[in-house]
Every structure is written in structure tokens, then in C-alpha cells.
Input
Amino acid sequence: MSCPKVVILSTIVLLLVVGRVATEADPETQGQTVSVPPATPSPTEPLPFDEPTVERFFTAVKNQLRCGYPMFGVPSLVPLKLSYTLKTSFDLLSLKKISVVASNFTVHGLNEFSWDPSRTRFTRTSATIPLSFPNVTAFAHTSLNGANGTSFLELRNVTVRLDAQYEEKDDLLYVTELGGSVLLEDAKVKIASLFPKSAKLSKIWNKAIGKSLPILVELFNGGKLKIEYLSRLLSGAKFYAMNTINNALNSHSLNFDRLVESMVKFADGSPDSLQCDGTAPMTGDELVGWLRT
Ligand SMILES: *[C@@H]1O[C@H](CO)[C@@H](O)[C@H](O)[C@H]1NC(C)=O
Ligand SMILES: *[C@@H]1O[C@H](CO)[C@@H](O)[C@H](O)[C@H]1NC(C)=O
Ligand SMILES: *[C@@H]1O[C@H](CO)[C@@H](O)[C@H](O)[C@H]1NC(C)=O
Ligand SMILES: *[C@@H]1O[C@H](CO)[C@@H](O)[C@H](O)[C@H]1NC(C)=O
Output
């Protein structure tokens, strides 16, 4: 599941700064400060943000997820399709050796999320933002000892906290660090064709696996479940995300303030921000300049 995280990271980091310009652009604020040059905020001082602007920005992002960001090599995420084949095997209570091939992953629900303003914080050099996904479900074609079917894993109430650090150098903004945490409330799984000859056994085993999930969820949330494979995937995703973001910032010559300006334009759907229409079929062309300043 590196891709969802990559894209979410890529989009989120770009948007944390929205409220700053929104606040500065407020006519009343401008009126009050017109004769006094604004003090440069300290790099570590939390910046105020305008909640409705950020909400509008997220609405625009949800639409954009449907189209992807082809110019940054990011495909549509609604649903997200992963052309990845997982091959593994496990022993079922030392009773039965099961070899698993899973392919054609489809992930639903990445465009359904809510944002928690009360736990959001950003400065000119760092940002923290929590997002909650009520239902992320992954379907896959699975083959268990040669018996084919469609399995799924449903993740309920996933809370992702993203931390980003960035800095300006030569009038360009660079992301220097991405991190965060994932909390999971509940999970449900159904594995197809576990016992192809017995629907009853399959049902019993799916129920047993389902019952053991809360324990796995606890271990995962407590950081006790270290999935070596997953951490490798995610650390790869981190560098991919940072590279993608920095390339985008660079090719659009964005510094902090110009990025904020672009994000506000994006939130407001102004004509030169070129958002995609979430319901229209994608041609690619309409997206090319969404970050243009
Ligand atoms: C996987 O997806 C590809 C392309 O979408 C399709 O051609 C293939 O039949 C699918 N395989 C299975 C086993 O569903
Ligand atoms: C979660 O999403 C999946 C895929 O869209 C859907 O099939 C499932 O019914 C949803 N579950 C709940 C509890 O809403
Ligand atoms: C199961 O799917 C695989 C492709 O994923 C295919 O090669 C195999 O023939 C299928 N097996 C059966 C029994 O349909
Ligand atoms: C998800 O979490 C929120 C806040 O923690 C809670 O209000 C909500 O009921 C949860 N939803 C589900 C489907 O568990």
C-alpha cells in the first residue's frame, strides 16, 4: 500500500500552507496593516489558518484524486489500482500449507476523508496534519493453492498523521523530511477459497481470522507489530514522495509564499489553477497547469 500513502503525502504537504495567504488576503487584515510592514514570522511560530479555505482545498483535492496528477506521474486514486503481485505462503496451524498469490489490487475509499483542524499545526518550516479515512477497502484477486477468488481487507477509521519539514533555499521550497503515524480502529477480512471444497470450513476460518484482527490492530497501533516488508515499502515511498514533491515545487519555481498562493487558487477553483472536474472523464490536458502561478 505504498502508493496511497505516497500520493496522500504528496498532496497534503502541498496544502498545509493554504490558510496563511487566506488570512493575509482577508481585506480587513490588510486594511489594518497597510501602513505597517508586516513582521516576518519566526520560522517556528505556528501560523494561523482559515478553516473554510482549507476545507475547500480538501474538497478540491478529493475531486483531483479521481483524476490523479498525470504531470507528476500519479494515476487516479478512485479507485486505486495496483499492478502488483504478492506471492507468499503460510502454515495454517501446521495443518495445511497454503500458498497465496494475490494480484490486481483495487483500493477504494482514499477520496473519503475528513480533516481535524484542532490538531493541525503549521509553520514556515514544518507541518502536522491529521486525516481520518472511515473506510479503506482493498480487493484483490487471490489464488490459494490454485483456487481463485476475490478477497478483501476492510480498514475502518484509519487516522493518518502527517509530519513534514521543509525549508527555503535560493527562493525555492524544498521538503526535507516526511513522516507520520497510522492508527487503525478496526479491520475486517474475507479470504476467498480458503477451503475450496468446503464453504463451511472457509466460513469458520474467515470468522476466526476476523476475530484475531482486533489483536493485530492493537499490536499495530502499539507499534509492536513490526512488518519488515511494510516498513521497507513505506520508506521507499517516502523518498519517492519527497522527490515527486520537490520536482513539482522546482519545476513550478515555488517558494513558500508562491506555493500558498497557488494552493488558495486551487481551493477557490480560479480559472488559472486548472482543477479537474471530478465527474468528467480525464483527458490529461486539463490538469497540466494546476500549480501554475
Ligand atoms: C488483472 O487485471 C488485468 C488488467 O486489468 C486483466 O487483464 C487480468 O485479467 C486480471 N487478472 C485477474 C486474475 O483478474
Ligand atoms: C467499505 O467500502 C467498500 C468498498 O467501497 C464497500 O464494499 C463496503 O460496503 C464499505 N463498508 C462499510 C461498512 O461502509
Ligand atoms: C487462477 O488464476 C490464475 C491467474 O491468476 C490462472 O493462471 C489459473 O489458471 C486460475 N486457476 C483456476 C483454477 O481457474
Ligand atoms: C471513527 O472515529 C470517530 C472519532 O474517533 C468516531 O466518532 C466514529 O464513530 C468512528 N467511526 C467508525 C465507523 O468507527
Summary: The radius of gyration is 22 Å. Residues 1-37, 278-293 have pLDDT under 50 and may be disordered. The longest helix spans residues 228-251. Strands lie at 80-82, 86-92, 96-108, 114-115, 121-122, 126-144, 147-169, 172-190.
